[in-house]
Amino acid sequence: MSAVVVPANRETSRRYARPYRPWVLRAANRTLGVLQGAGLGSPDLTVAGLLAEARRRAGLWSFGDDTLSDRLRLLVEAVVSEARLHPLGRWMFRENAVRTLVNRLRMEDDWARHPEIADVPLPRPVFVVGLQRTGTTVLHRMLASDPARRFLPSWEAVNIAPVPRRANGNGGNGGGNGNGKPDPRLGPARFAERALRYMAPDFFAIHPVEAEAPEEDVLLFEYAVWSTVPEAMMHVPSFSAWLARQDHREAYRFYARVLRYLQWQRPGGPWVLKTPHHMEHLDVLFEVFPDARVLQTHRDPTRVLASFCSMMSHSRGVFSDRVDPCAVGRHWFAKARRMIERSTAVRDAHRDGRFLDVHYGRLVADPLAELRRVYEFLGDPLTPTAEEAMRAWLRDNPQHKHGRHRYRLEDFGLDRDEVARLFADYRARFGIPDEA
Questions:
Q1: Measuring CA to CA, which of 77, 315, 357, 372 is 20 to 30 A from 232?
Q2: Which of 20-34, 308-322, 333-347 has the lowest mean pLDDT?
């Protein structure tokens, strides 16, 4: 599962190895670096410190899972010893970890006070999967524009628990805001969107992260430290390797629990969800969601890998001044092969109409025609209201809306001919055209 590695080209890869940094962030990093070098201003990245801070902020104690701290310890050790975060990146990691822990505490508190959440049904969910950069986002966001479907907006993904209402002495959330005002979770999400635009403006040309837009449900696994999100943001190979070896049944049972919690807060139609993360765990996904339907997208892997490695390098550049694009290439090449191998094995075992293949080229050329085919597969009517919403989304989100994304396999130490050879069986099986 190793790629042919070509010598790193300093000129072509330097935009990844030397991440863009606005002057304000450069100044903040210098100041924090001096303070931390003097033993001041260093964030507490111990497991005990993270758990204690989350409990202090939430005013709650139970995480509902005695094993959570073990996984958190593995992640923290990898971050501290491997990720090479810049000073501000260490603070951002800490705040992100505390945020997820606070939300977990609040969710467990709601579950304890509202056991009826366990009875919330999750009928006929639809999962969009595929290698990264194969059109999953376009397909998902078009499906999510159908008002008859329930999707996961970014603001909800990053704060699964409603902000407690304390003014009347009742901390219950009871299914949302309930006062007709915008959900208070929108504010922090909009701030995070603006912050990312400032820190990494090129990232939006690759994958726009917008507060109210549909987002990947891999973020929900974060609340139990079962997620591949850390390896997308940071160089944490030991945690990534450990996670790949685990049985993910517990992770998917927790994931279903979060979906019920969200559905209890904001009832809606059947879920439409998306993340490439599911590619490695489709067997477990079907155990937990037996009536699930899967839409798998396909595109030339030589284009996919180059685009996704670029995305991951930009993502890591938010947290670290030292990004090795060739290490990114090696990691995601191996992971992409594993995703194809595992998903293909599950498909061979489930020849019962659970999958529909969607090709990137056809989706881009005639998206509405592909959506009609999707709805026929799902056995659902594509209503005029839904179709008009999809047309509106297409008008509002033309390709390259946020700029043109440029990338090359060679920037990540990968050889095109070798990548093409090692994915040849996959391309032949699904009739994927060469985009060279």
A1: 357
A2: 20-34
Give residue for tokens 């079962």: 226
Q: What distance in Å separates the CA atoms of residue 275 and residue 279, rounded to the nearest whole number?
A: 8
For helices 87-113 and 68-82, angle between their N-to-C axes, nearest 10 degrees: 170
The residue ranges of every structural domain in the chain are 10-21+123-227+248-430
Could you give the CA distance from residue 387 to residue 408 in angstroms, rounded to a whole number? Answer: 36
Whether 53 shows a pLDDT value over 90: the answer reads: yes
Q: Is 105 left (phi over 0), alpha (psi -120 to 50) or beta?
A: alpha
Which pTM value belongs to this model?
Answer: 0.91
Looking up tokens 């449900």 gives 217
Query: Which pLDDT belongs to residue 39?
Result: 80
Question: Which helix (H) or strand (E) segment is 298 a member of?
Answer: strand 293-298
What are the distances in angstroms from CA 158 to CA 38, 63, 153, 302, 436?
A: 34, 17, 9, 32, 37
The answer to whether the CB of 32 falls within 8 A of the CB of 89 is no
